[in-house]
Amino acid sequence: MRSTLLLAAVEGCSVISCLPGKKTTTGRGALCFNRRYSFYGRLPLCSTFPLPVLFALHRKWISDAYNHWDELRKTEHSARAGVCQLSGYIFSSRDPAIVRNHYIEKVLPMYRAATEQELRICPGEWKYGSFFTTILTECRLYQPWATERFLDNGGRIVTVALNSLQELHGKYDVVVNCTGLGAKRLCNDHKLVPIRGQVIKVRANWVKTAFYADFDTYIIPGFQGVTLGGCRNFDSYNTEVSRHDSAAIRERCESLLPSLKGAPVVRESVGLRPHRDPVRVEIELLPTSNGNLRVVHNYGHGGYGVTTAPGTAKYAVKLVRETLSASSKL
């Protein structure tokens, strides 16, 4: 099978891990930002994963993804891959819906309402809360590890510049498009927009529990420090660190967990989440002057790329097999 994968962020690495065989050629497309962390139990999934009609499919993507991360967590590769188990709380003083996530409540080994005593763990007038146990994946570790395994299995990475997917016609049997925000230009997809995010990494090794609260406030202990966040700036292409966002993030996180005051900063990061309503995981036959190019798209995950990547990758590979099977019968 001649296949190519236009790789961006963790979605591409996940598709690589699901593709059969060892000789998959990988063309690197436009790179996109990926969140440094993902953990199951944050805000309910946004409109990138709409509830109507496709609810069952999206639930399966999330279930498949969680099972993938959990199996990796149990192997000897977990530390190098940046995967571990993590527990945490979600608190809100505004709305009980904020602390619920109907997609994952039946997937996680623990997801329950916080007790009255737990609602007083952090300063604030918290009315609603949940406690959960989940999986944390740190992409600064996972992506290099996954890429190394791909190369060790005989894969090749080829760096190319593309103006359109049609340029690949005749070279490959099927193209898997995981170019993230790059798909906006490559596919002329006006539904794809960036959602800007900013985080601060601090040294605070005494923090062992994750916390999430109103106004996209989160504190996530990981392998290389504690991540403080965040923000969601819709349709913003600004990749510079904003001192105003930094100040707001520190104020909210230190109010939630006062012991963070004075924690030294390791780095600050800004990135653009590729948001599409809905996420695009589907087959497309692109017309060219010499016939159709078979493409399987897998992009537009917004801030939930790591959370759902193995699940949508598994589904994308299923679509690859379907399109190849259909073409062999023609």
Automatic annotation (TrEMBL):
Carries keyword Oxidoreductase?
yes
Cofactor requirements of the protein: FAD
Which keywords describe this protein according to UniProt? FAD, Flavoprotein, Oxidoreductase
GO CC term, one of those recorded? cytoplasm
Q: Which GO terms describe its biological process?
A: D-amino acid catabolic process
Gene3D superfamilies per record: D-Amino Acid Oxidase, subunit A, domain 2, NAD(P)-binding Rossmann-like Domain
Which domain of life, per UniProt? Eukaryota
UniProt-recorded name of the protein: FAD dependent oxidoreductase domain-containing protein
Residue stretches making up the FAD dependent oxidoreductase domain: 60-318
